[in-house]
Amino acid sequence: MTAAVWTLLLAYLFGSVPAGVLVARTYGVDLRKVGSGNIGATNVLRALGWGPALVVAFFDVFKGGIAVLVARAFGLSDWMLGGVALMAVLGHNYSVFLRFRGGKGVATSFGTLLFLDPVLALWTFPIGLSVILLTRYVSAGSMTGGVAAFVLSLALGRPLWEVATVFLMALLIFWTHRENLKRLREGTERRLGERVEAR
Question: Looking at the domain assignment, is residue 196 inside a domain?
């Protein structure tokens, strides 16, 4: 197998590592049965608090970044870098370790973007964060961040491979948040800081 194929597989496996599930398990909690059932940092925050949530967020961000670093070490093309970034996100969303279920891919998307294009990532982050702080809806901030990253990639004149990668990541974010969109419309979406009982 070529280096490109191996790197794509490694990126998927990196992304598949379910940090939220593993961290919650150390507290005797099955994260998939708590709150939203999501394996990401937001649900960890609801169930276990800020400390464990920050650990999960850090891991989910940097597993995407590690995938990009490995791809660069192999000297892969720009388009392959984009493919590796997407595979890491798909691994998080559809983890082989969780029977192809997983999270929403926001932190991992940010991590890949941070290592692909730090300037774009650091322009995008405060936009998404501002929406979260203003509304206390993490889902709204996540989707806004996805749109902002795509718009900024166009505005900043980024190359086609990067624009395409960011566009597909934004689409994935909206796809994984489709139930959140429904709850936002219905007014039943949980806000940041709302706790749930950890079982």
Answer: no
Give the domain extent around 146.
3-186
Within-domain flag for 199: no
pTM over the 0.85 mark:
yes
101 in any annotated domain: yes
In whole angstroms, what is the distance from residue 29 CA to residue 115 CA? 32
DSSP letter string over 109-178? Answer: HHHHHHHH-HHHHHHHHHHHHHHHHHH--HHHHHHHHHHHHHHHHHHTT--HHHHHHHHHHHHHHHHHTH
Per residue in 134-152, pLDDT (tens digit) is: 999 999 999 999 999 999 9
Domain count along the chain:
1
197 in a structural domain: no
Q: Which residues of the chain have pLDDT under 70?
A: 1, 195-199
Burial class (CB in 10 A: 0-12, 13-18, 19+), 37: exposed
* pLDDT of 199: 54
Dihedrals phi, psi of 107, to nearest 5 degrees: -65, -40
What is the rounded CA–CA span in Å between residue 7 and residue 15?
Answer: 12
